[in-house]
Amino acid sequence: MNLAERISTVRHVNGLSARQLAALVDVAPTTITRIESGAVSPSFDLVQEILAVLGESIGFTGTADIRAIAAARLALDPALDIAASLEVEAWRRRWARIGLVDERGWVVAGKESELLSHAGRAARLTRRPGAVDFIAGPTAYTLAEIMGTAGIDYAVTGDAGANLYRSSAGEAWPVLYVQDVERAADIAGLVRKESHSFGMRVTLIPFDGVSELGRVAIDGVTVAARVQVVIDAYGGIDRMAEQADILLGRRVT
């Protein structure tokens, strides 16, 4: 698809109106509609900005912006030990323009789930820096037991993490943050999945100084902070967004 079609398609997938997308990137709503209709060609910088807030990239293989997660985590817990860099502040300004955070960068009451959804989509699990996919097989809980026995720091996230916080979600895609991806994969006997292949998988993501903050133990399994699990589920595939909704109490199971 061409650029206009791509922007329009991804905007709809993200559940955004043209006006909301325009506010996120600080342009007039008519600019977005004209871009999507093919009436104007946006600058390279504007394309980057649009695709960034939609969780995409200029190419189809770029990495997700972890600063979106940092901004969301700080908006819900300003006391977290996360540096408020210029890039983090940029995400706060974007979200302020659509009424998700206030002038301090804190989440607006009643907007928590919407903020987490935006953060998850901007930093999709499939595009996380350093993430490696492996052939499906072991569950997240089996991997957690292996990591714990081997003394490797880890945190279960995604749908398996949601299930630990609230026993209502299944597990379709084991995703773990780990201290050392290569060592963890070697100990667990994981086999790398072919690049750009689809289907079931196991994904290991290296610690990034943000996503693994606030880990807790539930039933003997170390799991990412509840807020992080929600972000990751919103940034996942298949039915993981529904599981984030369940964890937030937005759906009846």
Question: Which labels suit this protein?
Answer:
253 residues, alpha+beta, 434 Repressor (Amino-terminal Domain), Beta Polymerase, domain 2, four-stranded mixed sheet, two-stranded antiparallel sheet, 12 helices, 6 strands, 46% helix, 9% strand
Structure, explained:
The structure is a single chain. By secondary structure, this protein is of the alpha+beta class. Among the domains are: 3-53, 434 Repressor (Amino-terminal Domain), CATH 1.10.260; 128-247, Beta Polymerase, domain 2. Helix content is 46%, strand content 9%. It is built from twelve helices and six strands. It has helices spanning 3-13, 18-25, 29-37, 44-53, 66-76, 86-97, 112-122, 140-150, 158-165, 181-188, 226-234, 240-247, and strands at residues 132-135, 154-157, 175-178, 201-206, 216-218, 221-223. It has a four-stranded mixed β-sheet with strand order 1-4-3-2. Strands 5-6 form a two-stranded antiparallel ribbon. Helix 2 (18-25) packs across helix 3 and helix 5 packs across helix 6. The longest helix has 12 residues, at 86-97. The relative contact order is 0.13.
